[in-house]
């Protein structure tokens, strides 16, 4: 059984991710984990905080001399700015800072303050902040090292920012490569326009959302199951993706476009090649049929809403004075879709890892790989 | 804690749903449950089987003299046609019928047979069949009676079939009423064109998918939570919806359209009315901010792919002979989007029930309603 | 992932067990399931109802032509007496029978009626009744067929009834055989005295409890884990056993006797035999070290309290009149320890099955057995 | 929903506990948490390490200015000795220390090394070590502050060490007070003999186990449920207790002694007092009937085996040389039963907290206390 949890506030001492169920004997590359952390931070259109926090992961448990032991893995991401925030974020003591009372639309602020019976919105926004995704990326970076040991790769790319769309015709999903661009878009021309749109939005005090795709390559067939609603792999992927802050839509394969064409054009017919191996010429299904991976690349698409904290603030309310006010500015990113795509990779990696471990066990890599190979051998042809 | 599971094969003796965690003291209206079952079956474009199976629910446990006792509720939906299928679907004995060996694209057939090491595709398709959704509708019908006792209503409507789109401008989601039409579309003109499209597709041996919305009205604020990835209400709704057979996309509120507009146009600004109660003029967020219900109608949109079993069959494979064949026809619906919308209501009802019970407890209705009312009182204003 | 739930009231239409996660391709022997059902019913000292209900299991899903398909398995145990109880146990309609208002000590009656806000104690006792264990035995009978296919056997024996203790010196736990006696005791002399004690208690209008052991033979080593509190096999076994109605104590191996001797006498020293295979001369640990099976027979001991419904009724209360009364007699078994030992086997089988499937996967028997064999090969020597 | 996990190795950088579901608005007393940590360390008969590690808890998340926010709470317990262990316990790098290859009986060593495919037993013993219980005590200390806010108190006392038994007649469980003795025994005379037994065992190079009781006072009635096997409170308590390292037996109330007396002597008859409130004269059931708390003190008894690491080492095996050897000494406590009783309190606190939160919700203390009070009001009389 695989599970993970995160903890920590945005300006608290640190974020923590606890990852349990990674098999023993996995070599851990800490630089690679930190490379993923850096990817989350570098996007075009991010505000000032990104430069303060160059996130590094400390591994506090579960890894010894570079190898997992089967124990729960604790990952810590220190909030470097915390020392300047102790007046507002001390664990003990008495607050000396004024409370946040202006509830921002599009955030957890208003609902959270009611549900949890708080007086200072900071008690809510510190946890609802997208900073929490740093812990997810750390956890996901471990998960993807497990997946890579199983031969599975995860990449993503951004396909729409603020209405500027990348050309997605003729993408070879099985061989899609990660790129190093600051918007994670594979279409250079579109990416230039996206940058322009972000620049324009920033100058207008506005923000932009967008759409990205996460692709799982070399996925074994038969992961997930049709036998119960909560065992379906698409169900688990949709939940994992929608759990990311600001994500409002999830698609598998053709997604919503399935509504617009007749069935004869949308199903992935099956053929035998000369070796009597099954193949497809299309992948409308995005790699999942009947709640199970079918061997084609898994394609999960998600939409992120524009960051609701605008430099031109939104009409809002003050929970203390009960007056209408303009929402406070907690941060100032213009666009974080590239970052969301990195977080999306992490959540997909975590969901796929869970399903892989349910199927192939979790004691040690030798057993997992043996079980995987024997399975692949059995189902061949 | 609320949980539910279903069991049963499409042509087995019966489907079973086990629903646990419904509080004691809820009045159960069996006619209303059966009315939901009938809704799932009546849509325009459904094939022959729908008339054989007029589903009725038998309650086998958990309800006594019309009231829940707090016990697990067992719901049975008999497969009326089973008696004619005993040669193929006996629990014991020896099969006398020929195996199904042609694996249909778009179904669990091929992957399932590999994963579960079966020789007869019937061992897979009997469970992966959308007939299983009858058990979900039964479970959901109980859940929605619980929700209605809490003042929460769930309705749905179809907004796209095969590219024919309903006019969705100016919908008053808070007051959207259920309709009795055979396509569950509120736009009569569009619905006529949808029927036409279905008729045309049927004549061409083709099938159509579509899009529908499920709306949760009068939702208390603060259900779900921002504090952990798997406690977010949108996460749970996305998973529940994507778990439905043939669903390939899920959106909350504006969904993927968030990508196309700047943030200044997409967030739901907050105002105080004269009583110092918060209100909004828009609901882009679809009733969920920060993973929690915000008091606005919850709007979940889903896309169903066209049924992959076409009268003009798809190119496929025979798992025994290893020859390419045309896929067998297991059934012959042209369009089941209306049915999917009913199933969507059920899954939303079940997900919301789980979240409500996590928040307000599950012993008995008196306590749940007391806790709900005290909470509403506390957060007022 | 393996899970199971039961549903159903003692005098309702039927009990249901839903068992999910049994791999595909397991041959199911229905006669053997029913033999387990019969074992639960035959014990010396059981009252009148046992003869009414000769329980038979109907398999409603998950099995086709004698083999599992990987689907959820639905097991039904009809309550044969239900037809005579419709005045008291109808799902719908109006009750015509008088309510039960005398709350019996030692049962869920009093607490249940408060918690669930009921007026008729029957709403509680129908579910809290030990009749529910029939569904567990049915589920456990499926689980043990899975375990037997993996080479694992489960037996039990009664070692104490009402203070009459069996001689348990020199038991060869690895080869302990099931017996067919009506008290499930392997010590014939003690068993005679147990029967006598039961007879005496019955004549005095009294009841007797007792102690039994469940033994798991040929258990693979390394099932369960030390890495997290809720993954320990002893934790799972203790929970499963304590979940049985009337069970008040659970021990693994030497159990409470560990308190009375120094460590030098209580640990199972390890030796190599000529083949360099590890062996032990003792099994104080009862087959579990560090939360994992260690290859020795697992020994779980449990204590059942005497049935609290006595022919000489206990001092109790009437929840309606608020008067002190003598507790009503719902049934009249004198001793059910033999039945509890059968239920104990079932619960142990279910707990072990869960842990086995977490470790070796659950898709199909071919894969599970392959994974198990490869693991055994790897760890040899 | 309440959950908690621990992570960390015995000589790693730190232990971590992640506790999720504690309601917002609970005042946290850090000194009191640290007092619990100290209690775990001070027992008579503990070896040298206890003086090195005076455990202090750092709260890394979830608490702000002394109050919970509803967020996951991260608790860190630094391993002070870690700096001296980096040659053996570095996260990265190459080991320079010799491997541990002698597998000790009674520990996870041998099984763990096989299951997880390790070559250095340190990879297993670092996590299986009872040091992990420090993280549980930290988590439990938070849980008990929650319970105390609900009026619930948890105390324990040791009743048997190495066969020396305390006098447990006439204990007033409802008013049992914590004591500060170094063996946590309330019977001073017996405690002196226990000390003597520990001294003698230590001099003989031996170890001692024992038995303790954890008592939950002022427990609301109706927590837990009879409706499903895994919702029973006794099931959850038994699992929680048996999950503690070295615990081999768990009893509720009279426990195994129920086997030795007839039912007429063992059930807790009910009476009305003048106010028509129900009361009992006995508490054989240990506060739980039908899987639910019945308002009497909950009494959970557990047995700890003697520590298997003896100064006079046990016969064991070397996994590398395949020779029989004497087991290595990883530590040298003679008796840790007092510490186990503190851990037992923590695990009971965590299990009760989970069940309370399932019943009364977990958003904020104001709501939980309101729901609890309204419930108590409803069921009165």
Automatic annotation (TrEMBL), chains A, B, C, D:
Q: List required co-factors.
A: FMNH2
**Swiss-Prot/TrEMBL catalytic activity:** 5-O-(1-carboxyvinyl)-3-phosphoshikimate = chorismate + phosphate
A Pfam family annotated for this UniProt entry: Chorismate_synt
User: What SUPFAM superfamilies would the database entry show?
Assistant: Chorismate synthase, AroC (SSF103263)
Please name the pathway. Metabolic intermediate biosynthesis; chorismate biosynthesis; chorismate from D-erythrose 4-phosphate and phosphoenolpyruvate: step 7/7
Residue positions annotated to bind FMN are 127-129, 245-246, 290, 305-309, 331
User: Which residues are NADP(+)-binding?
Assistant: 40, 46
- Textual note on the cofactor: Reduced FMN (FMNH(2)).
Report the EC number(s), separated by commas if there are several. 4.2.3.5
Q: Which UniProt keywords apply?
A: Amino-acid biosynthesis, Aromatic amino acid biosynthesis, FAD, Flavoprotein, FMN, Lyase, NADP
Functional note: This reaction introduces a second double bond into the aromatic ring system.
Q: How does it assemble?
A: Homotetramer.
Task: Tell me its family.
Answer: Belongs to the chorismate synthase family.
HAMAP family named in the record: Chorismate_synth
Q: Which NCBIfam families match?
A: aroC, PRK05382.1
- State what protein this is by name: Chorismate synthase
Say which species the protein is native to.
Megamonas funiformis YIT 11815
